[in-house]
Specification:
mainly alpha; f41 fragment of flagellin, N-terminal domain; two-stranded antiparallel ribbon; two-stranded antiparallel sheet; 8 helices; 67% helix; Flagell_FlgL; flagellum
Length: 310
């Protein structure tokens, strides 16, 4: 087989270009710090990196959801603590008012404080977090509680299909396929079953207590009204315990999310980031090879007699 100058030149240029491209690849990896910069570099690796990056971003969103839910439940827990304190104070007023030796002035003072507690309860139950009312269930943009014409606290939050609100809460996705429900329905705070008369709703109960204090009905105060306030106290404590259980689960989810995020970030770094020491050595080797190629080409491509004839 006859080897011509054109054959030598062609082979040399192809090899030289291949070495130059390889050196450029190492140079890009060193300058960007990434193993790949476009899909054609390594399609399988790029697909894996994109999947891991998507998982990391999704996990970061779950972290935001968890932090938002933690702030929500923490605010709700503080509000429920004040609700419980208010109900306990109302119970003390009932016990004090059941004393038959009180004067009209004393009973009037107790009634005035009882009416004040109704407004205090409204303010607490209309607490908001980040501009959203925490006890309005799915209706978070408007205050869920008002005082009606009878002077009783009334729930005006989310009420599906015009019926009783039931046990509707707010759902938060805290992991892939994992949703937690935050108790957020104020109706379940102010309403209990089994109370006497219309005292199932705490607003009506407070109005009836005020009337009993004003009229000096000591038997009603020490009887049904005291029993009904105890039912509402137990209900508020149960609601707060549910909120505490949700908070504890969110704390555990936050720790697990942080561990998963660290693990995925490390895996993404191993797949995507360049080993600078290794790449620097490979780049130095390829630069030496490229320089050797240039020197070899200068020796084998010497002008021949045919070049002068042309």
């Amino acid at each position: 087989m006859r080897i011509t100058n054109n054959t030598l030149t062609g082979n040399y240029l192809r090899n030289l270009n291949r070495n130059l491209k390889q050196m450029q690849k190492y140079q890009n990896q060193l300058s960007s710090g990434k193993e790949v910069s476009r899909p054609s570099d390594n399609p399988m690796l790029v697909a894996r990196v994109m999947q891991l990056d998507g998982n990391v971003r999704m996990n970061e969103q779950y972290e935001k959801n968890i932090n938002d839910a933690l702030g929500w439940t923490d605010t709700a827990d503080g509000a429920m603590n004040e609700v419980t304190s208010t109900l306990q104070r109302a119970r003390e007023l009932i016990i004090y008012g059941a004393n038959g030796t009180l004067s009209d002035t004393d009973r009037a003072a107790l009634k005035d404080e009882m009416d004040t507690l109704q407004g205090q309860l409204q303010q607490v139950l209309n607490s908001n977090y980040d501009g959203r009312y925490i006890f309005g269930s799915l209706k978070t943009t408007e205050p869920p509680f008002t005082i009606n014409d009878l002077g009783a606290l009334e729930y005006k939050g989310y009420n599906p299909a015009g019926g009783e609100p039931g046990h509707i809460g707010l759902d938060r996705e805290i992991a892939k396929g994992v949703t937690i429900t935050i108790p957020a329905n104020g109706y379940n705070i102010v309403h209990v079953e089994g109370a006497s008369g219309d005292n199932n709703d705490i607003g009506n109960l407070f109005v009836n207590i005020s009337k009993a204090l004003e009229d000096g009905k000591t038997e009603a105060l020490s009887g049904d009204l005291l029993g009904d306030i105890d039912k509402h106290l137990d209900n508020s404590i149960r609601f707060r315990s549910k909120m505490g259980a949700v908070y504890n689960r969110l704390e555990s989810a936050k720790e697990r999310n942080a561990a998963e995020n660290l693990s995925m970030t490390e895996l993404l770094s191993k797949s995507e980031d360049t080993d600078l020491a290794e790449k620097m050595m490979e780049f130095s080797t390829m630069r030496t090879v490229y320089q050797a190629s240039l020197q070899t080409g200068a020796q084998i491509l010497q002008p021949s007699l045919l070049d002068y004839i042309r």
